[in-house]
Amino acid sequence: MERHVDLHEPFAQKITRNIAVLPRGWPTAEERNEKPDHAVLSAALDSAIADAQKRWEKGPKAALEPLLTLHEQLTLYPSFSNMTSLMQYATAFYKATGPDLTDTGFERWNRAVDAGLLDFCEQVISNDDVLSQIYQTWALDFFKILESSFYAVETRCKNLPDNGRHSPLRIRILSIADQLWRIIIDRPHAFVCTNWHPSSKAAYQLMLVRVTTAAAIHMSAVDPSGEASNGPEYKPFYRIVLFAWFHGHDPADDRGIVEGLLAIPYQNIWPAPFKTPLDSPEDEPPEFISFVEDEILGVYGPRAFLDRLEISFRHPQHIDSRLLFLLKMIGKTILREEFVPHVQAAGTFWSMRQAVDRQIMKGTKDDMQLFMILHHTLITFSLFSQISNVSEGAAHLIKQCEVIELLSLTIVLAVRIQPLVPLGYTGLSGCLHPMRVWTELGHTLSMRSGRNSLLKAFKHSVRREWYPTLTTLRTLPKGGLSHDADRDDFVQAWYELGMTVGLEEIKEREEYERFGKRAAQSCSWRDCQYHTEPAPNPSRVCVGCGEVRYCGKSCQLKDWKEGQHKKRCKRIKDKPSVPRETARIYGFIQ
After folding, report:
1. Which helix (H) or strand (E) segment is 466 a member of?
2. What is the enclosing helix (H) or strand (E) of 153?
3. Can you list the alpha helix ranges (DSSP code H) found in 165-301?
4. CB 3.0-4.6 Å disulfide test: which of 11, 60, 285, 347 passes with 115?
């Protein structure tokens, strides 16, 4: 354990230090060995709660008085006994005031603000010792008080003209928050250190997420247009939000609160993609470039950021608009040259592809939204294939990420949504570029001599999707298309993709009709009598991969335990002319 740290060290270095920081003036080891036992602490806490409740009966000033006094005493004379007394009354004050902002709690928090609660908050953060790990029990209670103060003021300001944009209370909250961000940047050790109590780091990280979420509401209210949110005065906040997202992953976070933090800096620094759902502006503002270079690359590096991003993509709450915004945010980021060598190893594209499948299976049945999700994923994949080595980029996308199936789903939906899109916009033109990218790749692979496993995989993927997609494109309603030539050009582009691998429409139609009918009526378990003959009842599809069918649950369990489906689920590639069942479920293909 160290008493002194180099506060001039770069933030990127500080967050790698596994050290505990003591407050200034902390007593020697001999003086701090005596700690009261659990029974004594419990009795003292009960007494503090009773005291806080009685003080609230007198009024908010009486309830606040011990907080100010005990904190001043701890500042002058740091010790376990003084810290424990402050912690106990802070806990009692929080409980007596109301852990939530409803009914009595809301009324009391506002009365406490009027009585000087923000004075107390300013007093605490004027001393950076608040982030010493030895103050953990007290500091975490302070974070709860701070969070409740932020929400109380926000609820109060919402009833003011212009949403209380220029309210002195809002401005004061932002000043307190800014001071806290700067303290954390100077002393982030409590949020990353594992040398202290095992649960300490996680507890600090959780409270940081809660406080930053509460503060973000005030940031948005003060600058609703987002025009000033990319100024230099906001940089400490964005650094802290990214820090909280990066270190705050919690498997128990079912609502995805931590994962949602990443949107805050992106949305404020570059709001245009969030305001134009159909397109993303081409040119990034300099503030966005600076954020990526200074905060993402400069602090965490490309691989660590991608590893954390992969976790975000796997979160079940990333569907619908949340998934769309995540895809729009990171598209411009991960295609930078610094990230390209690490994308495949980090599993970024694989997790993106899985997120798309999750959207199809569990997301809102909204054609427009799904098209945007598919389109942004497809564009990212296609651009990556152009800037990376073919044997690494394109091969990974074809073999592991099912990019040809993604292309098929996207273009079918592009035609289907035409009646829904604004005048002058066509999803068709947006899909022509990726179709050309993969058609050109097919030509390139076909010209290679010798054994070519990538060409084989490419042909396999194209063949599986080509004929069903071709038929669907030809039979979709024409509503919304300016004239037949629009569809004809689109169908021709898809037709040419099949030509690159030598597909013939007549043969593919015959194979599709023969194999497709048989697959829909048979059982995938090899030892089942209906594996080679039609089952008497309709077969049921595997929910995991959406591709294989079974006559009943017993055959499905046998194939999982004794067969190969456990290894192949979600990665099936042995049905060249039958599209995946996810496409059938959503109604993409016939």
Report:
1. helix 453-475
2. helix 136-157
3. 168-186, 200-222, 235-247, 263-269, 272-275, 286-291
4. 60
The answer to whether residues 467 and 512 touch, using CB atoms and an 8 Å cutoff, is yes
Question: Can you give the pLDDT at residue 2?
Answer: 47
Burial class (CB in 10 A: 0-12, 13-18, 19+), 538: exposed
14-66, pLDDT tens digit by residue? 999 888 888 888 886 544 455 667 788 889 999 999 999 999 999 999 999 99
Q: How far apart are CA 103 and CA 101, in angstroms?
A: 7
**pTM for the structure as a whole:** 0.84
Q: Is 356 helix (H, G, I), strand (E, B) or coil?
A: helix
- pLDDT for 162-220, tens place per residue? 888 889 999 999 999 999 999 999 999 999 988 777 678 888 999 999 999 999 999 88
Helix count and strand count (H, E) for the chain: 27, 2
Instruction: State how far the Cα of 301 lies from the Cα of 144, in Å rounded to an integer.
Output: 32
All residues at 6 or more sequence positions from 418 whose CB lies less than 8 Å from its CB, including other chains: 426, 427, 428, 479, 480, 481
3-class DSSP state of 550:
strand
Handedness of CA 479, 483, 487, 488 (dihedral sign): positive
The residues, ordered by sequence, that sit 6+ positions from 404 with a Cβ below 8 Å of its Cβ are 398, 438, 458, 461, 462, 464, 465
Q: What DSSP state is assigned to residue 563?
A: S
State both tokens at 464. 């599986």
Please give the C-alpha separations between residue 228 and each of 220, 223, 232, 247, in angstroms, as whole numbers: 10, 6, 9, 27
Residues pairing with 541 in the sheet: 549
Which positions of the chain have pLDDT values less than 50?
1-3, 30-32, 423, 480, 482-483, 571-579, 581-582, 584-586, 590
- Residue 466 and residue 526 in contact, taking contact as beta carbons nearer than 8 Å: no
